[in-house]
Amino acid sequence: MTASAPAREPGRAPVPIHPLAVRITHWLNAIAILIMIGSGWRIWNSSPIFDFHFPVGITLGGDVELSAIVTDLLCAFMSNPDLLKASSA
Predict the structure, then answer these.
(1) How many Cα neighbours within 13 Å face the side chain of 28?
(2) I need a surface site. Which of 7, 35, 64, 89 has the fewest CB within 10 A?
(3) pLDDT tens by residue, the chain, 89 residues
(4) How far is CA 48 from each of CA 24, 25, 43, 45, 61, rounded to the nearest angstrom?
């Protein structure tokens, strides 16, 4: 038994299907938005002026000092990509 395409009504244009790259980037963006929402909730919780707090289990983020260290390292590597190359001695 072979699968066949569903019959279209006469005179009706075919429905375009998005390419694979569009579908992959759509879901990557959806995941990125969820990550940004979770980290935004952690930022909200760290502010002393808001009464409402989100449960820590559904927020993303961590230690402020660790985040500062990681950010400093990333900025250092982005500003000087030669740091990633192995030294030839």
Answers:
(1) 6
(2) 89
(3) 555 556 667 777 778 888 999 999 999 999 999 888 888 888 888 888 888 888 888 888 776 666 667 777 777 777 776 766 655 54
(4) 39, 37, 10, 8, 17
Q: What are the tokens at 52?
A: 């409402």
In 3D space, the residue among 35, 16, 12, 32 whose CA is nearest the CA of residue 24 turns out to be 32
Q: How far apart are CA 71 and CA 79, in angstroms?
A: 12
Domain boundaries, the chain: 20-83
**Over the range 45-71, which residues count as b (16 or more CB within 10 Å of their CB) and which as e?**
eeeeeeeeeeeeeebebeeeeeeeeee
Half-sphere exposure of 83 (CA within 13 A, CB side): 9
Q: Which has the closest alpha carbon to 61: 49, 73, 34, 43?
A: 43
Structure tokens belonging to residue 63: 């230690």
